[in-house]
Give the backbone structure.
Amino acid sequence: MKSVLSIIDRNIKLKLLALTFVIAISSYVSSLVAVKTGGLYDDISSGKIASIEQGLMPVLLFGLLCVLSAGLGMFKWLMLELILLQNEVSLKSKGAKKILKSKVSYHAECLSGERSSQVSRGVYAMWSCMRMVVHEMLFTCFLVVFSLYQLLKIAPIQMTLVTLVYMIIFTVATILNVIYMKEPRKRANDLANEFVGKTAEAIQNIEFIRAINAFNYEQNRLDKNIKDGYKSDKKVTYLWAIFDSAKNLVRILSLLTLILLSCYFIGKGTLKPGSARALPPPKR
């Protein structure tokens, strides 16, 4: 983590900090939308809102809340994309500078095409990592915290505990997913970089390859790399499928538990029907 943060410029870190504040506000507003939706259903079903005149102001206020939630969502997305673009320019510049200033021995360790591939794939990996952490994980964490807070106000504590236990299991499964996929993903990236390097070398020497009729040799050399890369990528795909299936199973079980608890508490009169609609579904 320290090595990742060390290559991010200071001004980008400050913008990410500001974006975190925007995400927190957006998450809170999103949690309010679900609660207000349930409240409207309760008011309509109980007869508190029985005409257009009575429902006009609550509906308008709810509409403004939805517009605010959508606007904040678009703003944080736009802000994140601009930060990622700025970070991409910075990383490419640093990568090019390192390649140009490196010792000859550094380039002699592998094919020249591998270095350029490492830079491009490294920039993409950084882009994907930042996008996943900020846009998905951070937003989901804030949303869960605020949703649990809203849930404590409208539902029995047992329902909050179910959601909390689900999030703990989900977090542990995600950490294990990252740990088990680290080496296979690194192996897949190394093979992909090696393939780019060999392909670039073949293109540079295409006339020589044709002159000595070494087409079959080069083809076999590239095919071996392609097959090794396929096996490595397939392993990564299987790991993704296994962990995603496990997390989906936990998500479904927790959702069914929340539904059954809703039926039980609504029957006892300790939970309003509209509040059940406002319950936050477990997030992926």
Remarks:
- Residues 155-284 form a domain with the ABC transporter transmembrane region fold fold (CATH 1.20.1560.10).
- The chain has a mean pLDDT of 77.
